[in-house]
Recover the amino acids of this structure.
């Protein structure tokens, strides 16, 4: 039986100010004798809408009650910034968390990242590009802190922006544009075909390598927004590269389905994070940012 903890919330923390925009976070902290391992939550919303307060009671507080601190963050949306700015914001939050862990009462030697939908793309990119200076960005005041993570939880995210934006002429005529073009700073979905390198740069699938942190990937088999094949492709690439990945398929679940916030699924998520974060390898191994980049990947612009 999972121990249930009382949860306190520290709201409206500021983790960075960039281009006049203040980036906030809320901390969900379980009452425990020891500092809790912590996971950063990155909300969904197609990079255009959404907030750190989304699913506060049913998801964030519920997971914290299982013994893990949750830092839910805002990031710049596409009305003010485009890729890779959102990834830079996420990495700034990781560094800020490590710099302030003592005062927050969390164990920042053990940091995970967890994202849903658009947030899952950002979480995966943050986890897969650890140690690469070109992805670090200059957001925030704690450049000396590591932005590596020990585990990634990806819920119903895109893994290959090129594949999700490929359409036949009839599909282009009938279906509305998705959020990918705005994320990339392009006028329409059709423009993505003319910038394949940019789409690849923003695709987690492009950055998979054998030293990736362990992944837990979850997707509903009735998702009509992001095909379940996107999660399968990321899982397959990770395992073929020699990294650790678990893939959960939720039967009958659609995109952002309530099934993901069920007690059973949150318990599986919490168990994965507790196991993965127990090792605490990222902070120990990432005292400095490396400039090495795998030969098959590209530098973000």
């Amino acid at each position: 039986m999972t121990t249930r903890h009382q949860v306190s919330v520290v709201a409206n923390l500021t983790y960075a100010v960039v281009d006049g925009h203040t980036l906030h976070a809320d901390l969900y902290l379980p009452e425990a004798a020891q500092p809790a391992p912590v996971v950063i939550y990155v909300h969904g919303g197609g990079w255009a809408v959404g907030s750190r307060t989304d699913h506060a009671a049913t998801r964030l507080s519920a997971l914290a009650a299982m013994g893990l601190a949750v830092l839910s963050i805002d990031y710049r949306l596409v009305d003010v910034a485009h890729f890779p700015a959102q990834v830079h914001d996420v990495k700034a939050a990781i560094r800020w968390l490590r710099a302030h862990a003592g005062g927050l009462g969390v164990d920042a030697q053990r940091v995970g990242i967890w994202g849903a939908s658009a947030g899952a793309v950002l979480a995966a990119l943050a986890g897969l590009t650890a140690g690469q200076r070109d992805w670090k960005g200059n957001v925030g005041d704690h450049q000396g802190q590591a932005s590596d993570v020990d585990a990634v939880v990806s819920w119903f995210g895109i893994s290959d922006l090129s594949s999700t934006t490929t359409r036949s002429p009839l599909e282009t005529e009938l279906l509305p544009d998705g959020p990918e073009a705005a994320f990339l700073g392009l006028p329409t979905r059709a423009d993505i075909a003319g910038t394949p390198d940019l789409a690849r740069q923003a695709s987690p699938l492009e950055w998979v390598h054998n030293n990736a942190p362990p992944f837990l990937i979850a997707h509903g088999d009735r998702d009509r927004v992001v095909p379940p094949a996107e999660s399968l492709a990321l899982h397959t690439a990770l395992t073929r590269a020699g990294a650790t990945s678990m893939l959960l398929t939720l039967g009958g679940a659609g995109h952002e389905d309530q099934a993901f916030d069920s007690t059973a699924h949150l318990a599986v998520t919490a168990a994965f994070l507790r196991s993965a974060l127990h090792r605490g390898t990222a902070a120990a191994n990432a005292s400095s940012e490396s400039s090495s980049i795998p030969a098959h990947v590209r530098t973000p612009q």
Remarks:
- The chain has a mean pLDDT of 90.
- DSSP finds eleven helices and eight strands in the chain.
- The chain has one domain: 7-87+100-160+203-285.
